[in-house]
Structures are given as structure tokens and as C-alpha cells.
Amino acid sequence: MTRKVRWGILSTAAIAVNKVVPAMQQGDWSEVLAIASRDIDKATQVAQRLGIPRAYGTYEELLADREVEAIYNPLPNHLHVPWTSRAAEAGKHVLCEKPIGLNMQEAAQLLAVRDRTGMKIQEAFMVRTHPQWIGVLELIKSGRIGELRSINGFFSYFNSDPQNIRNKLEVGGGGIMDVGCYAITISRFIFRDEPRRVIGLIERDVNLGIDRLASVILDFPAGQASFTCGTQIVPYQRVQLCGTRGRIEVEIPFNAPADRPTRIFIHDGVDLGGNSPEVKEFPICDQYTIQGDLFSRAIRENSMQAIPLEDAVKNMAVIDALFRSESSDGWEKV
To answer: Which of 231, 251, 233 has its CA nearest to residue 241?
Structure first.
């Protein structure tokens, strides 16, 4: 077995501590060597709890650790590009949480950083490498539901806490940046193309300023994708993919559980009630383990990463167009 890639975690963010780090520690290709916080006590406590050998009281100390080969960056959205750049300049490969930047122009700066440093940089869209979505794409390619014409999705949760980072407009908060980006990347992934134009109906929280409800249409050459995302509405997620001869429904498309199998339902359209679908089940897995191992393997083998950095820039281009649509009250080209 090839030596595991040694990882450093840039902050004690909840997503890192509760989801990503424990999953990566189960990987065949990933080893979490160090974690940093601006509070050394917090870093030490998390390191002890998760069995991480090294704790640092500054991000700079982590980047200076010569044994750390790769960085996972789960910092707030406005710090993604600055600290991803600093990590790459320090000779570290970087897996950065989504969205990779605050806009396309900012995200595109990372292309130059990558080319200059030779480091791999990837946006952490774990859904793109989950077996259920790989399976959906294979079914679409095989013609199982005919020609794909429509993707419809919903992703929501309820969080009105003004202190929560997701509700702070100035640091890139809001529903589209937090959860709408998943529907966008999946639509692009499954259509295997870029939308030509988009339109978005966006409702903002009067006090917080963030987009709390958005309904979106993406116009692709082969069909259309639409989704609704919300941050102050009942938690729910589902995706439907409709073709000329059938339909696929993804039960838990984004927060796929790590403790039980995932399922998709394949309908032939005969039963309009959808009561007798073909059920395709995917074995228990942790999408964060898969994500970490694929990136680590690409580092160790010097091979192509699962999701190229250019893809992250293109996803941000769609998000930018949606916010332009909010201002223009009409369709916007991507």
C-alpha cells in the first residue's frame, strides 16, 4: 500500500470536525496529521478528541509544517480563495469547501495560483463522487430513461440565527451559495454541459440581507434544470430527472447518509402514482471518505483529480449570472 497523504485541517469548523475529518481518518489514502485554529486551546481539544497528532494556534504554523502535504480548507466563504492561495504558495495541495470563492472572478484567480505552484486545487463537492450520482450518470448515458430533458431539485433547511456564518451576507452567506450550488453542480454534471442562460426569483431576509428563498431555471442545450433552495423553510431535499421514456428520483441527493444504503427510484411512467418503481440501492459508504481518498490518490499518483478546478470556476459563473438575474429581473447569459 502506498504511503497515505498527510493532511492538515485549516480551522475547527463544524463541517470539518463533525463530518470531513472523521471520514477522512477512515480512508485508505488519507492521514490527518494536524489541525489549526486561531485558538490553540480549541485546536488542542479537537486534536485530542479526534486523535490528531498535531495542533497549531495559527494557520501560518500549519502551512509551515513541512510534513503536511495537503490542506482541507473549511473556512468561511470569503476566506476560501485567500487561504487556498496561501496554502498552495506554501507547497500544499488544497481541497477547499464550496463555494470555492465569492464570485467567478475571484475563483479564477486560483487557476493562476495552481499553474504557478503546480499544486492541485479542488472544490469539495463530495456529491459529485458519491456512487449514487455516478450511478445516475451511467443510467442516463445508457439511455435508461431515454433522452434527458428535465432535472428538478429541492434543497432546504431552517436557520434564522443572525450569528450563524451562513446568515452573514458580508462573508458570502445565503441559500444559493450554501445549498443552491449543489443543485447547480449536479445539473451541470448530469447534463455534461453548461447552461446557456439562467433566471432566478430570489427572496431576501429583510434583516439579514441574505437570499433565503430562491427558485431557479437553468437553460441547457439539451433540456432544462430547475430547483428551489431555502434557508428558512422545512428541511427537505430531493431530485427528479425526467427523460423521454422514464424518470429517476434520488431519495437523499446531497446529504447522503453514511450509516445506511442510498436509493434511487427508476420509473417507466406507466404508473403515474409512482408506486412501483425499480429500486436501485447503493452500498453504505461515506462520501467524505471517498472525496478525501480520491484527492489523496490523485496527489500520490500525480494523476487527474476527480473534479478539475476549471469546473469550480464554471459553477461560480452560473451563480454570478443568477445574482445578475435578480438585479435585471430577467434571463442572464452565463
So the answer is: 251
